[in-house]
Amino acid sequence: MAEVQAVRRRRPGRVGLPDDATGDAAGRVADGARGPRQGDSALGRPALQGRGSRRVDSATGQAAVAGQLAVRARGLRRSFGETTAVAGVDLDVARGAVFGLLGPDGAGKSTLIRLLATTLLPDAGDAEVFGMSVADEAKAVRPRIGYMSQRFSLYPDLSVRENMDFFATIRGVPKAVRRVRGEALLESMGLAEFAGRQAMHLSGGMKQKLMLATTLMHEPDLLLLDEPTTGVDPVSRREFWRILADLHRDGKTVFVATPYMDEAERCTDVAFLDAGTIRQTGTPDQLKALVPGRLLEVRVSDSRAAAPVLAALPGALSAHPLGDTVRLLWDGDDDPDVDGALAPSGVEALAVRQLVPDMETVFTYLAEPAPGNGESDEAAPSPVGEPARDTAPPPGVEPPARRDGESARPPADASQPDQSAAGEPVWAESGQTEEARP
Fold first, then answer.
1. Which domain holds residue 97?
2. 427: in domain
């Protein structure tokens, strides 16, 4: 019989980005974070009312007590026809945090980010960015944020430098500042030697770094990044996160949706979004502590055949194939009889060992199917008479301004969509995106 080999639980380290990426800044969200700009109190609105988010005590929670929030959402809701993409989200994001947003495809991640970026209006509820309403004070919010959509949205026939200069001009960055700041960003991101190359001829990783550099030209305090490394090679992903680590050290707030669990490990705080609702928030270590039972890795001769057999054992909470192994979440009093369970199916158990839960385990545990979770962003219809929405406007391009007297939000009974706009990282690649609309 394959015996369970327990591994020593690693002593918890500092929460947040790893030491090689952040140095002494890791895990200290409030320390060194950029304080409020002069005039925040004058622009601020009365505190939003509503129920608190489901969260464990975290760095973000501590910052909320001190009032040092970059984002505060209460009851935020957005629907597309009969499909509810964001269903009453309550969320706090501390200033200076690297806040990761996780969730299955169609959970509403892109819609939530676009609401915070003011490219969509909420149907109900509100969110404040540095104390300013995204619904009622969008023009005041936009200079403070930098939004980077999933897909490449710059001009392919312009060069790297021309794209940066163009969008900085739109943002009102003075010419002298544009030149100095642009050169510094190109150098820091390894793009200086490609400044004259057309954007269409850049690699995937270079395109993502160019989008980030363009987003940073007006020096936003909050970065909203929608799966910025999807489809990028592992080396480029690692370089991209090193850049985010530097921004974290500089006191920038980063709000990033990611499908990669190794990237989630690098965040100071994480929220899990499912069916438009925040299920849990906390630090990566705190979310890992929520996983019940023991995590067992069962190496077998046929993982796909073994997974349903092991999942049916009394005491099994879940079982998922991963390569030539099955990850079994076990809550029984005794070790599972893996050999006896698999023998009738002809599958051989080669080894069993106990693992420390990682963020992949957290994701699998929280994403277990629940009744009524069939809706998704992908099912959201396009507004009547308009083509399917592909991406948000390029960084720096604002959606059409509202006409004088036009309401800042749609009526509560509007039936149509609004017409406005554990171990070493794997660094695996994925081509999936959340908003793969035709």
1. 43-289
2. no
Rounded to whole angstroms, how far apart are CA atoms 276 and 69?
22
Q: Are residues 282 and 296 in the same domain?
A: no
The type of residue at 367 is A
Contact residues for 374 (Cβ-Cβ < 8 A; gap 6+): none
**One domain for residues 326 and 184:** no
Tell me the CATH number at 310: 3.30.70.100
* Cα Rg of the chain, angstroms: 23
Q: How many other CB atoms sit within 10 Å of the CB of residue 89?
A: 24
150 and 275 fall within a common domain: yes
Tokens of 94: 């501390």
- Given the DSSP bridges, would you call strands 69-80 and 83-94 parallel, antiparallel or unpaired? antiparallel
Answer yes or no: is 122 within a domain. yes
Residue 5 lies in a domain: no
Q: CA nearest 151: which of 92, 211, 193?
A: 211
Of 366, 387, 402, which closes a domain?
366
Q: What does the alpha-carbon distance between residue 9 and residue 185 come to, in Å, rounded to a whole number?
A: 41
How many domains does the chain divide into?
2
Same domain flag for 79 and 154: yes
Indicate whether 236 and 249 sit together in one domain. yes
Q: Is 311 helix (H, G, I), strand (E, B) or coil?
A: helix
Give, for all 438 residues of the chain, the pLDDT tens digit: 555 554 434 333 333 333 333 333 333 333 333 333 333 333 233 334 333 334 444 444 444 443 589 999 999 999 999 899 999 999 999 999 999 999 988 889 999 999 999 999 999 999 999 999 999 999 999 999 999 888 888 888 999 989 888 988 888 888 888 888 888 888 888 888 898 899 898 888 888 888 888 888 898 999 999 998 887 788 888 888 988 898 898 889 999 999 989 899 999 999 999 999 999 999 999 999 988 889 999 999 999 999 999 999 999 988 989 889 999 999 888 889 999 999 998 999 999 999 998 898 899 888 876 433 344 444 333 333 333 344 444 444 444 444 444 444 444 433 333 333 333 333 333 333 333 333
Whose structure tokens read 């619904």?
Answer: 135
